[in-house]
Design goal:
This protein is mainly alpha-helical. 52% of the residues lie in helices and 3% in strands. The protein is built from eight helices and four strands; from the N terminus they run αααααββαααββ. β3 and β4 form a beta hairpin. α4 packs parallel to α8.
Amino acid sequence: MAESEEEDDYMNMVFEDAPKGPKHETSLQRAARKRKEGEARARQKTKAEREEEAEASREASLATALPETNKGFKMMAKFGFKQGDALGKSEDGRKEPIRVSVKEDRGGIGLESEKKRKFREQFEAAERLAKRAKEEEGDYLEVLRQEQKEKKAERDLNSAQRTAERLFDKEAEEKGTPESSEKPLKDINVFWRIRARRREEKKRDKQQRRELNNSIASRLPTLAHEDDDDDDKVAQGRDLAPFYTTLENDREDEDSELAEFEALPITERLQKVLLFLREEYRYCLYCGHEYPDADMEGCPGVTDEDHD
């Protein structure tokens, strides 16, 4: 028997979706929904959530264009304003609304400007103090560098004067002429005369102390000699001659040439002595060498900076 009807294809059968449930909520569902809504209304929102909602509402309002039914829009439309146009007769005004700056504190309207003014004044005062401190630090460092430079120049000058005196005495010994120690103070070269003067002062101070001690010891009471006619045999030392003749004859002669040289700046005195060593003895203090000829080939210069 021929089958006149096609067999059902159960593999390709399409079933209707399962029922989604009743169209109307049950009393239990309604009670659960109301309970959840009540709990949501009763819950206190946090400050961050309230600020977020306010910000979202504000942004939504700013993003919404002014409707044509608005009274203000109708007034501007009478003057030719269209949605999206710029404000102003020349149409060069702003198209976006002015951003809203929310004041979140309870201070007065001018308080923020006053705070900014005070902060700006404090910042400017701090800048001035920092600048002054930096200048004072720079001045202090400059003074310190200058002091170190002068101390270095004093050491170099002392070395140069000692070297010049040594070379002079060496040359005098070879020629048989008087050395610095054998000459009067004013006949010594002014470049190292101060060294001889200091030696003389040191020698004189030592002599004065010795004579003073001898004078004090000579005036102490002592027993008289047995052959003395004094009955008490005690002599007070009044007839003894004093030994402090150096103190009485201490008269320093003025030396204007030395005073004029010592009044020069330390660097200028050092420069003069260094040039004297090079011209007279072909000697460089910083090389520490006495050259065979006047050209002094190999010496980089006169000053210490030239030898760096």
